[in-house]
From TrEMBL:
Natural source organism: Litorivita pollutaquae
InterPro entries, per database record: Peptidase_M32_Taq
The name this protein goes by in its record: Metal-dependent carboxypeptidase
PANTHER family noted in UniProt: CARBOXYPEPTIDASE 1, METAL-DEPENDENT CARBOXYPEPTIDASE
UniProt cross-references to Gene3D superfamilies, sorted A to Z: 1.10.1370.30
Length: 495
């Protein structure tokens, strides 16, 4: 056995254990969000910090540098080269962050998550300011260490979308915003579709949500659905869990949150099993991940064809629920809503919610916006963008968990995922010309199989833009998304 072969085997054995521990850490987070008793928050913070300490030590192990050096001139396969690309990047980044800072961040953000939940429930942003200020300070410190003289926000963004920059995303958003604002204004001036009204049993919602999850290809032998305040997907490979939520006056919240998280989960479940517990065995970026959740939820799940099928499922579950026809249901599902919550926003307005957060978090990290002034800045920007004031903190700057757990740089990937989804949908429609007929019958197989084969199975094999370009047949840009939205909502609102 050559020295290079021995070094690669040793490196991958080390990485396999690290990846397994990452999965364990993720399970701690899932437990905290779903079933952990509230009184366990402080202990869980210590547990999370301890796990991060172990992982940081493994990620900065000098042996990794030695193995990588041994492999610099080795003749490697595409899979081996991709593994080394990820490991080398992780090793460089981990060594720039002091171990005590990594542990302090993990401990603090676990504690902050509980305090965010309490502040959100009490609609009291002031109560959250002290701990969020600590989080922002540590994230600035981490970002400065990662940036190594470069842009601090870009260094944090790179955790979620490798290769992206704040400047590039800002330019993309500048192209999106005028068209979205114009489309929204025209739609809101037109006659609005009737909303869904009534009361829908939470138990029946969950039963239907599980059925729809199966329809979209979610494998319950390797997953489960639970409830959480903020729906999310967690895990990978053989254990991919999702959460949703129920509101008795809004079953669409539950159903479409479920479909959204199923998109994330199916990406993880459909990655080539040979990549399990390696750097390739997970979604390559949050933007690509979001492209899967958004195309499942919107281009497929909110299409006229699929909502015709879902209309029948709704009637089977709830009887006559007040919608006279499948067309009325389609229009209700896609109705523009003047609400506050990002996760409940329609396709036209969703990206405006993201842009608000993107601009504010860049300012927080740059130090041009103080945490104490965040609520006022949020409320001012929201009213300017949406035309009405925020009524309470839980509908404003306390609605998302992300900043409490230190996910600065994450929000932008939601809109990037929408852009990617627009490109993928264009290619999918060309590849599966009878897609609508299949969706109308509740057959998601051809659509989800196309996504599995052209994107999901690759996991981390290719860089984010490359995997989208290969699947879509062209470099990603915002034009397909804007064309899709203009056509869809001009039809619904008779513009």
């Amino acid at each position: 056995m050559s020295k290079a072969t021995e070094s690669y085997a040793a490196l991958m054995a080390h990485e396999r254990i690290s990846q397994a521990l990452v999965q364990v850490a993720g399970r701690l987070g899932w437990d905290q969000e779903t079933v952990m008793p509230r009184g366990a928050a402080d202990q869980r913070a210590e547990e999370t910090g301890a796990m991060e300490s172990v992982l940081h030590a493994r990620r900065t192990d000098p042996g990794i540098g030695e193995w990588l050096a041994d492999l610099e001139t080795a003749d490697l396969t595409n899979v081996q080269s991709a593994n080394l690309r990820h490991i080398s990047r992780s090793y460089t980044r981990a060594n720039r962050v002091p171990a005590d800072l990594a542990q302090r961040l993990a401990t603090l953000t676990s504690r902050a998550q509980g305090q965010w939940a309490d502040a959100r429930e009490a609609n009291d942003f002031a109560a959250f300011v002290p701990v969020l200020s600590e989080v922002v300070a540590l994230k600035r410190e981490e970002g400065a260490a990662l940036a190594d003289g470069g842009d601090v926000y870009d260094a944090l963004l790179d955790d979620y979308e490798p290769g992206a920059t704040g400047a590039d995303l800002s330019a993309m958003f500048a192209s999106l915003r005028p068209a979205l604002v114009d489309l929204r204004a025209r739609a809101l001036e037109a006659a609005a579709p009737a909303p869904l009204t009534g009361t829908f049993d939470a138990g029946k919602q969950m039963k239907l949500a599980r059925s729809i999850a199966k329809t979209f290809g979610y494998d319950f032998k390797r997953g489960r659905i639970d409830k959480a305040v903020h729906p999310f997907s967690s895990g990978g490979g053989a254990d991919v869990r999702i959460t949703t939520r129920t509101q008795e006056d809004d079953p669409l919240n539950c159903l479409y949150s479920t479909i959204h998280e199923v998109g994330h989960a199916c990406y993880e479940q459909n990655i080539d099993a040979a990549y399990a517990l390696t750097p390739l065995g997970q979604g390559v970026s949050m933007g690509v991940h979001e492209s899967q959740s958004r195309i499942y939820e919107n281009q497929l799940g909110r299409s006229r064809a699929f909502t015709e099928y879902l209309y029948g499922q709704m009637r089977d579950s709830f009887g006559d629920f007040g919608c006279a026809s499948a067309e009325d249901f389609y229009r209700a599902v896609n109705r523009l809503n003047q609400g506050y919550i990002r996760t409940e926003a329609d396709e036209v307005q969703y990206n405006l919610h993201v842009m608000l957060r993107f601009d504010l978090e860049r300012a927080l990290i740059a130090g041009t916006l103080a945490v104490a002034d965040l609520e006022e800045a949020w409320n001012t920007r929201f009213e300017a963008d949406f035309g009405y004031p925020v009524d309470q903190a839980s509908n404003g700057c306390l609605q998302d968990v992300h900043w409490s757990v230190g996910l600065f740089g994450y929000f932008a990937t939601y809109s990037l995922g929408n852009v990617y989804a627009g490109c993928l949908n264009e290619a999918l429609c060309a590849a599966v010309p009878d897609l609508d007929a299949q969706l109308r019958g509740g057959d998601l197989g051809p659509a989800t199989e196309w996504l599995a084969q052209n994107l999901q199975r690759h996991g981390g094999l290719m860089p984010p833009r490359e995997v989208i370009t290969q699947a879509a047949g062209a470099a990603p840009n915002e034009a397909p998304l804007l064309a899709y939205l203009e056509a869809k909502f001009s039809d619904i609102y008779h513009l």
